[in-house]
Structures are given as structure tokens and as C-alpha cells.
Design goal:
Elements (H helix, E strand, L loop, with lengths): L3 H8 L4 H35 L12 H28 L2 H18 L8 H33 L5 H9 L1 H22 L15 H12 L2 H5 L1 H6 L4 H7 L3 H11 L4 H10 L15 H30 L1 H8 L8 H34 L1 H21 L1 H4 E2 L2 E2 L1 H15 L2 H7 L10 H29 L11 H24 L15
Antiparallel strand pairs: 1-2
Helix pairs in contact: 1-13, 2-4, 2-5, 2-6, 2-7, 2-8, 2-16, 3-4, 3-5, 3-21, 4-5, 5-6, 5-21, 6-16, 6-20, 7-8, 7-16, 11-12, 14-19, 14-20, 14-21, 14-22, 16-19, 17-19, 17-20, 17-22
Length: 511
Amino acid sequence: MAISFMTALDRAALQLYHYVAIVIAGMGLFTDAYSLFSIVPVTYLIGRIYYNPDDGKPGTVPIALRAAVVASAFAGTVIGQLLFGFLGDRLGRRKVYGTTLLIIVLSSFNCGFSIGRTANYVIVSLCFFRFFLGVGIGGDYPLSAIIMSEFANTERRGALVTGVFSMQGFGILFSALVTMIVCHVFEVAQPSGKDPIFPHPPPSADLAWRLILMIGTVPAVLTFYSRMAMPETPRYTALVQGDMERAIVEARRVLEIDNDLMSDVEDHGASMMPPPDQYSFFSKKFFKRHGSDLAACAISWFLLDVVFYSTTLFQSWIYTSALKPPEHVNAFTEAFNLAKFQAIFAIAAIIPGYFAAIMTIDRVGRREIQMTGFLIMAIVLLCMVLSYNAMVEDNRIHFPYLIMYALIFFFANFGPNTTTFVLPAELFPARFRTTCHGIAGAAGKVGAIIGSIGLLWSSETELDEQNDRVPGSGMKYILIGLTAICFVGVVHTYIFTPRSTVAVPLEEHED
């Protein structure tokens, strides 16, 4: 359906506000990545502080408790995506957008606190606040994607939405840098220059991990006012609320739009409004027109997150097997080295993957990038399976294995990790858009829970008999399973994902 006002938005030149919106809208995703990656070195610090055994080895958080810390955040994310996805369509994107960031900031900051200073209190408090952190982050997913999509022009919509998602890469890098700086400062600040390795880290280590988690809130706090000052998206105002005049005013607040087109809208806006809602979300008509697209987005996101979050937590033994044994370094050095590896992977693989997607998504197409990403991830994982015994030997991981691991992240981001975020922001009517994005994202986080918890249990319960830091055959079977899932992703994308949303106006789906 041709709507002149929407055409004006679609033809608007790329301008400063689009870039500002990327930063503002991406800050929740930035904090999401910060939380996910900073929890790895933080967990190692907590293990050495609160779980020191009597056998002379550094302590570690028990596997069941680590699983709880991971699952609590993902469970909250599922709820947040469903809840705020629904509210975004009912109340408006802007009305609930500040709420999600406020939840993120408060929960992330409170992750650094605990009711007491015993192991149980620390873990319970961490799980509690990470659950609500997940709720805020989950709500931010659909709102950030849709706000950017509804402000974007047609030509570069995919790149702009991907730009929002790419803030995750910078969140990963920032978390690594903060962890390195905090650990280095605390280590050199010890009276002797270094803390004793045994029997316990110094008391300051308990403050260090808390600071690492709290500092992650700073960028989000700095953008809070800007988020609250954002106008409602003109598409929501016009197409859902039915107020074309206000939509024009709000669009002109932040965007420069062709005056000739805008004059045409002002003269004929009332006659160009879409027809009123004719069916509800739970109607047969919705599922007939949009059900297949929603299922395609949800299943693709589910498959991707099983693999992506498995390989994200896979980093624990990849890193530690390539570093000095924990009994040979102090707590700060161990956390510093883990963060250093995270920074290297972020710079070498994760951020370049996002930029490759930004440069190509509006030229190559979403479906093509998603299929290619799944396929190359499957090939790399298959190579890791075939070379497993050769590469994981002498109780260490060989360098080519690290390269293959980095390639998984590159082609996840230059592939389905990005497209699963972009596609639900384009395929549905404005009145259902955040709801559908939230459902697709929630399906993904269910996959994340399955993948990450399953990997955590297997990697710890199937350790090599000669070295309890290198997984045994159990990990090889997990890699086989992840390879199969990626091949399923290729086939599913080819059959069910819409062929093209490149340069297609969002209003093509307004029916």
C-alpha cells in the first residue's frame, strides 16, 4: 500500500540522527554483551574467593551454580522479550523504552551487591539480579530493533538495524578492557606488588569483581536521557495510533525529509491512512498471512542461539587450556588473561563480523547472508570435529583450533546472529511488530538456555582423564551436534525464510 508519508521516510537521506539512534538504541545490547562476557572472568574470581578447597588447588564455582547464574539471565530475557514486545505494540515504543534501560541499569549495578559475604549469598544475589537484568535486556531487543527499523530509510535499513546490533561487539570489547584494567590496578596495588596465590586471594578481590559488573552500567546511564528524549517512531504514530499530523511533526523534529513529499502528505494525509485493524494477533487471518514468517524467524533464531551461546561458553576451556594453569597464577592474573583473550577475539573476529554484515546486508540480502553464515559455521565445526583428537592433544589446544573458533564467531555475526535480529523487524505489520520480534527472540533465548547449560554440564562432566582442564570425548560429541544444527539452519533458511526484504518498504506488510 503506497503511503506518501512513509515514502518520504523511506527516501530520506542517511543523516546524523540515524547514527545517534544507533548508539542510543544499541546501548541495551551493549550492556547485554558486557554482562554475558564479563561473567566469565568474574565467575573465576568468585570461585577463587569463595570456593577454595582443601587440596591446594584454586577454587571454582560448582557446575550447578554456574549453570544457575547463566540460566537466570536467559530466563529473564525470555520473559522480557515477550512482555515488552507485547507492551511495545500496545503502549508505544517510546513509552516502555526508558523502562527497559532503567531495569538494565539498576539490575546490572545491583549484580555487584550481595546480601552477605558467603558463597551462597553471593550466588543467590547474583542470580536474582541477573534475572531482572535479563528482563530488561530481553525487552530492549524488540524495541531497539523496531525503533531503528521504523526510523530508517529503505535503502540502508538493514545496515542501520545491524548497526544497533553491532553494539554487542563493542560491549564485549569494553567488558574485556574494564576487566583487564580493574584486575591490573588491584594486583599492583597490593603491598607486595602481587597477591599470594594461596590459600585465598586478598580481600580486595571481592571488591574487584563487583566493580567489573557495576562499571558496565556507565555507558547505559550516559544515554538514558537521550533515550527518554527520543520521539515516538512516526510509523507507530501514523499507522497504529492513527495520528498522521503528529507523526509528521515528530518526524521533522529529528529528520530532514523532502519538503515536496511532506507538503503532499499535509494536503492529503487523511486519505492516505491505512484501513483500521481488521484482525487480531490471535486470529486465523494473522496466522494465515504472517504465521509462516513468524515461525521461520523463531526457528532460525532458536537454531542459531543453541550454537552461538554454546560456543560463547565454549570459550572457558578454549582460553584456559591455552593459558597457564590456574595454580601457577594469582586470581587477578587469571581473570586478566581471560579478559585479554576476549579482547583479542572481539577485535579479530566478532567486531569485523558485524562490520562485514553492515557493508553487505543491503546488497547481498538477509536470506543469502543467513544461509552462508550457517553453512560456513557448519563447515568450520565439522573441521573441528575431524581434527579434534589431533588438535586437542598434549593437554592443550593448538593454534589452528583457536583460528577455527574465531571463524565461528565471525560468520555467526556475518550471518544468522545478525539476520535473525534484522528480519523480524521488517516482516510484520506495525501493530504486531514488536510482539513478533519478541516472540522470535524468546525462541532464540530458549535455544540459548538449552545450548549453554547443556554445554556447561558436558564440558565439566566429560573431562580428559589426564588433564581436568581439557574436555574429553563428550565435547567432541557436542561439536557434532552443533554441526548438525548449523546444517539444519541452512536447509530451514533456504526453504522458509522470505527471499528478500532488501529495499522493500515496511508498509508492504501493512494488511
